Amino acid sequence: MTGLACVNGLVMYAVYANCDPLTAGEIQRNGQVLLYYVTDKLHHLKGMPGFMSACIFAGSLRYFLVNSLQLARKYARIFLI
For position 7, what pLDDT does the model report? Predict the structure, then answer.
């Protein structure tokens, strides 16, 4: 997964090496580069921007769920044992 993220970053760096969307005012934060790339270069594929947004949202929910379960397990051990 980390390798895929690195390749993704290198591809976006190669595409936007001469024109930075942040300084051009196309995006407001560095975290928006991936979604901008998808809407800019893959707009001809129907549903791809929505699919990428859903994948990022699902990944963030998974991260939140795992962390909240670990926290609940920790407090359960403290208070129940």
Answer: 87
Nearest to 51 by CA among 62, 35, 66, 40: 35
The residue assigned the tokens 């991936």 is: 34
Domain identity same for 26 and 47: no
**Nearest-CA neighbor of 9 among 17, 40, 42?**
17
Q: Distance between CA 37 and CA 48 in Å, rounded?
A: 11
Number of domains in the chain: 2
pLDDT (0 to 100) of residue 64:
84
CA angle, corner 12, sides to 43 and 25, nearest 5?
75
Alpha carbon distance 30, 76 (integer Å): 38
Tokens of 63: 């991260």
**Which pTM value belongs to this model?**
0.62
